[in-house]
Amino acid sequence: MQLDHITLVTPDLEGARRFFCDVAGLENGARPPFAVGGYWLYADGRPVVHLVDSTVAAARPVRVAPRFDHVAFRVAPGDEWQALLTRLAAHGVPYQLADVPLSGERQLFVALAPGVVVEFVTAAG
Predict the structure, then answer these.
(1) Is 94 exposed, middle or buried (0-12, 13-18, 19+ CB in 10 A)?
(2) Strand 116-123 to 105-113 pairing
């Protein structure tokens, strides 16, 4: 089994697209012509983040809790990790770093919006 995608329903569709493309490094790609606006963002040729506009009334009942806490992306150590840090700095995106005890991994957390956290994880160097 592997993670297929995450869906983020947001009132700030363009802001989320900019973050995931300009900072996280995903690519905007083909998306089916759904009735509600949004984007499919790709990594390694696969649509892994689906953004959906929450400002349009839903055609089906609104889903309620439970909700996921955050989504995490694994980033290769070295150049790929440094490129992420550079993009975060260039866009003025605040973040928090944490080392995972006993795992040899480092986490980076970005609060994208209230209640929406994006994590990037890599091997600590």
Answers:
(1) exposed
(2) antiparallel
Query: Residue 94 corresponds to which amino acid?
Result: P
- Ranges of residues in the chain with a pLDDT under 70 are 1-2, 56-69
Residue 9 to residues 54, 73, 79, 115: CA-CA distances in angstroms? Answer: 6, 18, 31, 12
How far apart are alpha carbons 125 and 111 in whole angstroms? 24
Nearest to 88 by CA among 119, 116, 115, 114: 119
CB neighbour list of residue 110: distance below 8 Å, 6 or more residues apart = 19, 23, 88, 93, 94, 95, 117, 118, 119, 120
- The pTM of the full predicted model, rounded to 2 decimals, is 0.79
On whether the 1-57 domain is CATH 3.40.50.2300, my answer is: no
Fold of 68-125: 2,3-Dihydroxybiphenyl 1,2-Dioxygenase; domain 1 (3.10.180)
pLDDT at 104: 87
Q: In whole angstroms, how large is the CA radius of gyration of the chain? A: 15
